[in-house]
Write a structure and sequence with these properties.
Keywords: Membrane, Phosphate transport, Sugar transport, Symport, Transmembrane, Transmembrane helix, Transport. By secondary structure, the protein is mainly alpha-helical. The chain contains 23 helices and two strands. Helix 2 (about 20-55) runs antiparallel to helix 3 (about 65-95) and helix 6 (about 145-155) packs antiparallel against helix 7 (about 160-170).
């Protein structure tokens, strides 16, 4: 690394927090907002689709999507997101973060609208076009994992980098929350306008006349806020680190940095010690996807046959919004506030441990929780599993990959890492669907190899990735990694 590059990048590492950083959090986070909104809403939409298209008298499970259709509608989310993570992660390193970033947002906007316009001459046709449009929607959403994390990490200072990346990821919580609010508003409007009878009275009459429009409105709303950020996303300059380290254009990197940040290029930082933490890919989306089924099993939500279609959607949305408000959103922001204080190792280990305790607490005395008097306790405990997933491994494993890989591979490797988490979600999602259709659930969690990576708190990206190893050749201080490691811990899985 030449001396001029060291000066520019170290000046970036010590820059004070500025308004642009918060703007970048919102712009980069809108992809995660759309991702969470889409995932939240599809679980509600599948309820509507079953009531609208699969209500047949005498059917074994009238008003419910057939298992193969449900698997296709839900499973396409994870599969397409995984492909998008790998594809756009690679493109982000080949073409640059900025060039790919604007295109992916247009994909998300277009296919959010297209999903709401799904068409067909029969139920199977509607489901097929919905799955097609959702594949491309989530393909675009997958780009946000490697690109948003990489862009935020390469613009933040080393003092606040972890918190800023966590804040980008925390936009998922707001997406879930807004999804619940939008669904509540739409379903409430139709619920009060039309007094449809319960499904058990007459399946046909339980549908309000505009039921076919409700799910389309919910899906298409996700495009609005994403579209509003398009202008700001394409106006973002290429990251300084990509331009300086990959493109090797130091003058352009300096100009781009001066456009958005006020930095002192004469400031050069020093290096601290290293610690070792565990890295493991985590994805909690399979929990979000099947919340509605869990709530029904414990009796928190009445049986579907006792409600009209809008009443059912309203109560499910209300329950999921409560979980988001009390568990998911606070968990994300606890990570934002404490990650630069506690460090990733502490938060990740704590999250895994507490989640394990609460999940055993839910699973072992399961029949105890199904009693009406104990349902509030179940909801509180269930909310805490989400809290510690986000104030824990769900957030930390999103941050780690952008900090330990060099700039030329950062986006690609982050895409691979998050895709590993998505693969686990795929196994869990289809396993859950299989188990729900049989009396012999035999799903098994996939194992992930343990890795040893440095604790990134307070260190520059170049220190963590090893890109400053040749700094001593141009007069910089030699920093042998073997001498800088003062504390190390290996956590086996």
């Amino acid at each position: 690394m030449v001396k001029e590059q060291v000066t520019v990048l170290n000046a970036l590492d010590v820059t004070k927090t500025q308004w642009y950083h918060f703007t970048a959090i919102v712009i980069a986070g809108m992809g995660f907002f759309t991702d969470a909104y889409d995932l939240f809403c599809i679980s509600l939409v599948t309820k509507l689709l079953g009531r609208i298209y699969y209500t047949k008298e005498g059917a074994p499970t009238p008003g419910i999507l057939p298992p193969n259709v449900s698997a296709a509608v839900n499973g396409v989310v994870f599969c397409s997101t995984l492909v998008g993570q790998l594809f756009f992660g690679l493109l982000g390193d080949k073409l640059g973060r900025k060039k790919v970033y604007g295109v992916t947002l247009l994909i998300m906007v277009f296919y959010s609208i297209a999903s709401g316009l799904s068409f067909g001459h029969n139920p199977e046709g509607v489901m097929a076009t919905l799955c097609f449009f959702r594949f491309w929607l989530d393909f675009g959403i997958g780009s946000n994992y490697p690109l948003s994390a990489t862009i935020m990490s390469e613009y933040a200072s080393k003092r606040t980098r972890d918190a800023f990346i966590a804040a980008v990821f925390a936009m998922q919580g707001f997406g879930i929350l807004v999804g619940g609010i939008v669904t509540l508003i739409i379903s409430s409007a139709f619920k009060h306008k039309y007094k449809a009878p319960p499904y058990s009275v007459n399946p046909k009459e339980s549908l309000v006349p505009e039921a076919n429009y409700i799910w389309r409105m919910i899906l298409m709303f996700g495009a609005i806020l994403a579209a509003l950020t398009y202008y700001w996303r394409i106006k973002m300059p290429e990251t300084v680190r990509y331009t300086a380290l990959v493109v090797k254009n130091l003058n352009q990197a300096t100009m781009d940095m001066s456009k958005v940040l006020q930095v002192d290029l004469n400031k050069i930082t020093s290096q601290n010690d290293h610690k070792v933490i565990e890295k493991r890919s985590v994805d909690q989306q399979d929990q979000n996807l099947f919340q509605k089924d869990i709530f029904s099993k414990i009796g928190w939500i009445p049986p579907a046959k006792t409600m009209s279609v809008t009443g059912e959607i309203y109560k499910i949305a209300r329950a999921q919004t409560l979980i988001a408000l009390c568990g998911i959103v606070p968990g994300y922001w606890f990570t934002v506030f404490f990650i630069d204080i506690l460090g990733q190792f502490t938060i990740q280990l704590m999250g895994f441990f507490v989640m394990t305790v609460f999940m055993f607490g839910l699973a072992i005395p399961y029949h105890h929780w199904t009693l009406p008097v104990n349902r509030i306790g179940f909801v509180v405990t269930y909310s805490l599993t989400f809290f510690f997933a986000n104030f824990g491994p769900n957030a930390t494993t999103f941050i780690v990959p952008v900090e330990i890989f060099p700039a030329r591979l950062r986006s690609t490797c982050h895409g691979i890492s998050t895709a590993a988490g998505k693969a686990g979600a795929i196994v869990r999602a289809f396993g859950f669907l299989y188990a729900s259709q049989s009396n012999n659930p035999t799903e098994r969690d996939p194992g992930y190899p343990a890795g040893v990576v440095p604790e990134p708190k307070g260190k520059s990206l170049e220190e963590l990735s090893g890109e400053n190893e040749d700094e001593d050749e141009v007069g910089g201080k030699a920093k042998a990694q073997s001498n800088s490691i003062t504390t190390s811990r290996t956590v086996p899985l």
